[in-house]
Structure formats: C-alpha cells, structure tokens
Amino acid sequence: MTQQANLLLDADDLSLEIAPPGASDVHRATRFSPAAHLLQARYRDRSYLFRRGSPMEFDIGERTLPPGFDGCAPGDAFVKIGVGLLERDSDAAYSFSHVYPVRLRPETTLTADRSRARFVQRLEPGDTPIGYELSVDVRLEGNKATLEYALENLGAEAFETEQYLHNFACLDGAPLSPDYTVAVGYDCTVCDSIGSRLAEPATALVRSIDSRTFGFDAATSEERAKVFFRPLEAEGRQRWSIENAATTTRMTIEADRPPLVSALYVTHEQISLEMNVAVTVGPGTTARWTRRYEFA
Predict the structure, then answer these.
(1) Which of 20-29, 110-119, 218-227 has the highest average model confidence (pLDDT)?
(2) Over 90: is that where the pLDDT of 127 sits?
(3) What integer pLDDT is reported at residue 99 of this predicted model?
(4) Tally of domains in the chain
(5) 143-182 burial code (b ≥16 CB/10 A, e <16)
(6) Of 98, 97, 95, 90, the residue nearest 73 (C-alpha)
(7) Same domain, 123 and 242
(8) Among 32, 45, 93, 250, which one has the highest count of C-beta atoms within 10 angstroms of its own C-beta?
(9) What is the pLDDT, as a whole number, of residue 90?
C-alpha cells in the first residue's frame, strides 16, 4: 500500500496537518474515525498537539453504546459511527479497545483547497436498520480552526450517540509540569465516568486549583491518570483553555453543545482534553455541531 502524504491546510500564520483517510494504523482498527483526524497545529511557529494529535471516536460504552450493540447477539452486526459496520464476536460487554471483526468499512472521501477540507463517510442501512452519513468541514481563518460536523440518520430508527476528540496537547513540545493549567468555562465537580460525584481526584498528577481550573504535578511517579468532571449547573459554556506559563503558549477549544461528563487524560508527556458532545438523531434528520480551536 502506498503511503499517502498528510494533508496540510494553511491560512497565513496558522497551519493544520491532517491525516488522509486510511493513512494511520488507528484508522484500520475499529475505534477511531479516519474523518478529520488532526495531527498537528502550528501558529506563528508554535506547536500545540502531541504525536497522534486529535483522533475522533463515537460511543465508548461509558454513557452510550454504538448503535445496534445493545441486544445484538454474537455474530450479528452493529454500527460504530465514523468506522463502519462491525460484528459482535462474543457475549462480553462492549469495549472500545477490543478490535471487532469488520463487516464493512465505508469509504471516507476528502476534498480540499488551501484553507478548507471536507470529509464525508456514508454507511447505508443493510445488515442493520441503522445507517448514517457523517461529514466534517474544516476551515482555517486567522488564528482559528473550525470543525463543523453533520450526522444524518439514513435508517428508520432514532439513535443517540456521543462523540469526543482526544486533543492530545503538548504546547511547544513542553512535557507535563506545574507551568500547565487547564481552565474550563463552567464551575465543575470531579466525578466518575457516568457522573456520580467524587470528593477528590484519586491521582497525584492532577489537582483541582478551583472549581474551574486544574493544575498538574509531574514530580509524582504516577505514569498516567484520567480525571472525570461534570458541570455543577445544568448549562455552561463548553470552552476550555490549556496554557503553559513558561512557553506562553495557549490553545482554546469550544463546542456549541452543553457540557456533559468530560475528562482529562494525563501522562508525563501530554494532557488530553476530552470534550464530549451528545446528540440524538431521528430517522431522516441531521444533527449538527461545531468545535472551534483558537491558538495563541
């Protein structure tokens, strides 16, 4: 197989490197989507992402299951949005890390010009009554990158789905240190993966500075940690910023859907900002949502 070159979008001082569909090993597994997989962002010669960048995944089994998995018998098919039609191969509960047999991996098409790109993936109903068309439009302007998502339900049944991007952040290549802070746009409380309240993070890597800010301690021998949190109020602005005081570099991400249970996945090399978005899509309807990145 000939290796495809990465897609490079640019708009003056901002450039965005994106994996072409199917170019990455993670795309050939059954977890992450090949649509709009951001690899690196650079603004005025500063860099913002770490290694695998920002792969996208739907329905990891904590709050939502892939459509059709619930009640699916071993040997039957279910849908992993962004990936395709998969087969349940045992009675075990759904696991996002398990590699399921692939029944059909639909083509993801890409069209692009200098500062814009469009990814489209379509799975027609067949072995299951569920089908979808997923499109992602990426555009750059100034110091901002906007990703616009549209998910159309091609089947006869409604489904609920939850999407997140990893957003592996490493500002200017700086490893984890107390120079990093992550601020969220709403008062939050630490919880477990389904939203039950916990007193404090069970980790030394991550600490709550206040109800909107997290700090980090790289001196601990703990190798990795994942902290879940949820808003204290029903509504809140889903806008997060990660900043490094030493490099004076900052990345802000905003989603136009209300916040749910969210997470920080932290290692000594990176901080992953896992901002979740949930939608319910009725038959013949299309759900739309947007994420915006701002770089400084």
Answers:
(1) 110-119
(2) no
(3) 96
(4) 2
(5) bbbbbbbebbbbbeeebebbbbbbbbbbbeeeebeebbbb
(6) 90
(7) no
(8) 32
(9) 96
Mean pLDDT over 228-236 rounds to: 85
Query: Which two structure tokens, joined as six digits, stand for 236?
Result: 């809140």
* 25 and 151 assigned to the same domain: yes
What are phi and psi for residue 24, nearest 5 degrees? -105, 150
Give yes or no for residue 1 having a pLDDT over 60. Answer: no
Q: Are residues 87 and 19 in the same domain?
A: yes
Do residue 266 and residue 289 come from a single domain? no
What's the length of the chain? 296
Query: pLDDT tens digits for 165-200?
Result: 999 999 999 999 999 999 999 999 999 998 888 877
Domain with 184 in it: 171-275
Greatest alpha-carbon span in the chain:
54
- Asked if residue 1 is part of any domain, the answer here is no
Burial 82-93 (b: 16+ CB within 10 A, else e): bbbbbbbeeeee
Is residue 25 domain-shared with residue 134, that is, in the same domain? yes
The confidence band for 237, taking pLDDT boundaries of 50, 70 and 90, is: confident
What pLDDT, on the 0 to 100 scale, is given for residue 117?
A: 98
Residues 121 and 175 in one domain: no
- Calpha distance 50→27 (Å, rounded): 18
Q: Are residues 188 and 133 in the same domain?
A: no
Question: Is residue 229 within 8 Å of residue 262, measured between CB atoms?
Answer: yes
